[in-house]
Design goal:
By secondary structure, this protein is mainly α. The chain is built from 6 helices and no strands. It has helices spanning 5-8, 12-22, 33-58, 63-78, 85-117, 123-130. Helix 2 runs antiparallel to helix 3. The longest helix has 33 residues, at 85-117. The protein is elongated and about 60 Å long. The N and C termini lie far apart (42 Å).
């Protein structure tokens, strides 16, 4: 467990914020307009943005989207209909997609920064950085 602790610590703030956002949902009445707005726009947007930020800072970690899906499950069983179980999977997939995009953006940013530092006189450096 101690060797996995450095991987788990960066995830905690994101999971706590996700839990807070997920558990605001039961405060809304399931038949209201805001409930559907929250389920279809706010939570997926948050999952995508949080996944992007996490992927940019920490890279791709397989258990982050799994935890996002698991955090949503108690909400499904306590307050909402069983029809929305698929939303937990969708939120996990969106966080995975955001994490992948954040990691890709980070790699591209690092590549651009290293290309600027290379000697501009070398034709090999120019050729490698233009791709």
């Amino acid at each position: 467990m101690k060797k996995n602790l450095p991987l788990l610590l960066p995830v905690l703030p994101y999971l706590v914020m996700t839990a807070v956002i997920f558990f605001i949902l039961p405060m809304l009445e399931p038949d209201s307009k805001y409930f559907l707005f929250f389920m279809l726009l706010i939570i997926p947007g948050y999952c995508l943005i949080a996944g992007f930020v996490y992927g940019f800072k920490n890279g791709i970690v397989w258990f982050y989207p799994v935890f996002i899906s698991i955090i949503f499950l108690p909400l499904v069983f306590s307050m909402i209909y069983m029809k929305v179980v698929i939303y937990g999977c969708i939120y996990g997939c969106l966080s995975l997609m955001g994490m992948y995009l954040g990691n890709l953006f980070k790699k591209r940013k690092i590549k651009i920064l290293t290309c600027r530092k290379k000697d501009s006189k070398s034709s090999i450096a120019k050729k490698g950085c233009q791709q």
